[in-house]
Amino acid sequence: MDLSLIPNIKHTNSNNFFLLAGPCAIESEEMALRIAEKVITITNKLEIPYIFKGSFKKANRSRIDSFTGIGDEKALKILRKVSETFNVPTVTDIHEVSDAIKAAAYVDILQIPAFLVRQTDLVVAAAKTGKVVNLKKGQFMSPAAMKHAVQKVKDAGSNKAWITDRGTMFGYQDMIVDFRGIPEMREFAPTILDVTHSLQQPNQTAGVTGGRPEMIETIARAGVVNNVDGLFIETHFDPANAKSDGANMLHLDNLESLLTNLVAIRKTINNL
């Protein structure tokens, strides 16, 4: 795949998977810069192409009192600050057609949330910005159905589409990753495995999503073995007090050992 489409991305010749990683939501400038600096240090050491991830707002919440953001423009300016400070590309998700042009002025990649990936107007608006569009597979969709979302991007005049698998919901409170879908979706577009969201336990009676972060390495290893193009990992230096998705996040202190193991696996796979 051609990572040169992404401004400021590094280590594109390392033959590694690429990484989208960062907090679920932008909580403050200090937290975003702190996480970005740590991840960049690790990915430079391991020669992993890296894109900083952070949501400028959260629209899909279980309860009306859930954290939704610190303000759209404030959070988008923080994403730009991360990009300018560390010379790193950034990605954020959008939820409304009007978000596409607004967010595209600040970030390099626009992400379509899984629940919204069938929303034609939203996908087309993202594609028309000229940015790479990261399409998250709906929890309710088969891998094969994602070809239609990719085709919408193409029909809007862009060839810059990625697919991200974040698991499929077969029960009420759990997600399952079907690794047969990775090679299938790679036929349509570069494919990323969202490791941490795949380990969510949604629809809890308390209205707060649960998770199984102890399984992060298990899911990530399987993705790398099955030749996924990229990995998506949400990470935080204090997951227990993160304002969104803390239950399934990777602690920032554990990121280097995880990525070190995954790079070793990828090197082995590349030599087969």
Automatic annotation (TrEMBL):
EC code(s) of this entry: 2.5.1.55
All residue ranges annotated as the DAHP synthetase I/KDSA domain in the record: 9-266
Keywords: Cytoplasm, Transferase
Subcellular location field: Cytoplasm
GO cellular component, one term: cytoplasm
EC class (word): transferase
Listed Pfam families: DAHP_synth_1 (PF00793)
Pathway given in the UniProt record: Carbohydrate biosynthesis; 3-deoxy-D-manno-octulosonate biosynthesis; 3-deoxy-D-manno-octulosonate from D-ribulose 5-phosphate: step 2/3; Bacterial outer membrane biogenesis; lipopolysaccharide biosynthesis
Catalysed conversion reaction: D-arabinose 5-phosphate + phosphoenolpyruvate + H2O = 3-deoxy-alpha-D-manno-2-octulosonate-8-phosphate + phosphate
Molecular function terms, GO-annotated: 3-deoxy-8-phosphooctulonate synthase activity
Biological processes annotated in GO: lipopolysaccharide biosynthetic process
Family, per entry: Belongs to the KdsA family.
NCBIfam families recorded: KDO8P_synth, PRK05198.1
Name used for this protein in its record: 3-deoxy-8-phosphooctulonate synthase
